Amino acid sequence: MPHSSIPGDHSVSHWTILCDFDGTIAVDDTTDTLLERFGRSGWEALEADWKAGRINSHDCMAGQVALLDMSRDELDAHLDARAIDPAFGEFVDAAHAQGMHIVIVSDGLDYGIRRILARAGFESLPIVANHLRQVDEREWSLQFPHADKACRIGSGTCKCARGRAAHERTLLIGDGASDFCVAETVDFVFAKGKLIQHCENKNIAHAAIAGFADALPLLHELPSKKLAIA
Fold first, then answer.
1. CA 186 to chain centre
2. Which comes out higher in pLDDT, residue 57 or 225?
3. Which are the contacts of 51, defined by CB distance < 8 A and separation ≥ 6?
4. Backbone φ and ψ of 5, nearest 5°
5. Staple partner for 158: which of 27, 62, 114, 148, CB 3.0–4.6 Å?
6. CATH number of 3-228
7. In the predicted model, is pLDDT for residue 2 greater than 90?
8. How far apart are CA 147 and CA 34, in angstroms?
9. DSSP 8-state symbol, 40
10. How far is CA 114 from the centre of its chain?
11. Strands 139-143 and 127-136, how do they pair?
12. For 81-177, where are the alpha helices, taking DSSP H only?
């Protein structure tokens, strides 16, 4: 199996992990499940426009969240039924034991991420995501405190900006299109789903994983500066 060497003599404590949430930590895409359960007519058309490249992720998400018809109690009950990767806790413990800093960086909904992680005991993890705001009993809007006008892919949360801000060696863990741009800027990638093919196409140093159970042994290989590329 081929390997990629990471240049420089950097201890593991000098690594920052940027970790996606939906489809990576969470088993499903939380926003998609909310739209399927509570979305008014029209959210599918916005999704089609985004997939066709007619609108960017920022505008798609803003439009879709405005179409959610749910109370706070309905939202909370739905979020409390979402599952996360069963090996995520062990991964977090291992990363922290090695002095690594983990930041959840997502183009999803901050409220949902915080509630799901808090239920699992990870309320202390820093989260960078779009801000979900309740504007009426059953009306919602989305704000973008981490947007960047220079974002190449027009995401609500510019993950590239977070990658550029890191002053340490950076590991990305992700699975989808919102991770494509930042994957090209970090030192190494643990890739799931569509991100695997993107890394292969762009010759990005990465290891393919199915979940955090696969990521755990790779995490321990960081000190050797040699990581297997699937």
1. 14
2. 57
3. none
4. -85, 135
5. 148
6. 3.40.50.1000
7. no
8. 22
9. P
10. 13
11. antiparallel
12. 88-97, 110-119, 159-165
